[in-house]
């Protein structure tokens, strides 16, 4: 397992970030560091994603990933900008193959046994369970996990302060992805003090899991 993935496992929580403006990337990175959660998955859902990753990569303490990666070209762009791991919403064999061949950590999205087995074919040990709550939450994840003792998951989608500890209490959960501490409206409003507060609160919360 790579150092990046070990770090995610230690932190237990990955803030999933959508940035409309790259100018917000640096203050967000500083807020996450101050909040005690130096990690971010910057999603390619906005045009500012690449520039935001580039700006956040200047903070070496941040475990920086790129999310919503849908193509090999986006993988290359993300890595060129400083991303150290890749997250995809589904299982794209071309994307996974490229990442594995180039030793780029990747957690593809899975929500069914067939997809888990596709991941196993590529030697993956950690996959993203997405969209977690929409697909039945922890009950579904436990059912999927039963035949696959060798795999751990990062549930993402609908994870919040009220259910994150339930997920983390399950031994097959590697970490959780969530956005409640990095809400887009807070970022847009420049309310980074509130992001620091929510991040600190989240860090303390997952310590109890």
Task: Characterise the protein shown here.
With 209 residues, this protein is of the alpha/beta class. The protein has helices spanning 3-11, 25-34, 49-56, 72-81, 93-101, 113-121, 137-145, 164-168, 184-189, 192-207; strands spanning 13-17, 39-43, 63-67, 85-88, 106-110, 126-129, 152-155, 176-178. The chain has a single domain (3-203), classed as Alpha-Beta Barrel (TIM Barrel), CATH 3.20.20.70. The model has no long low-confidence stretch (mean pLDDT 97).
In short:
The chain is an alpha/beta fold and 209 residues long. It has helices at residues 3-11, 25-34, 49-56, 72-81, 93-101, 113-121, 137-145, 164-168, 184-189, 192-207, and strands at 13-17, 39-43, 63-67, 85-88, 106-110, 126-129, 152-155, 176-178. The protein is globular and about 45 Å long.
Descriptive tags:
single chain, 209 residues, alpha/beta, TIM Barrel, eight-stranded parallel beta sheet, 10 helices
Describe the protein's topology.
Blueprint: H1 3-11, E1 13-17, H2 25-34, E2 39-43, H3 49-56, E3 63-67, H4 72-81, E4 85-88, H5 93-101, E5 106-110, H6 113-121, E6 126-129, H7 137-145, E7 152-155, H8 164-168, E8 176-178, H9 184-189, H10 192-207
Parallel strand pairs: 1-2, 1-8, 2-3, 3-4, 4-5, 5-6, 6-7
Helix pairs in contact: 2-3, 2-10, 3-4
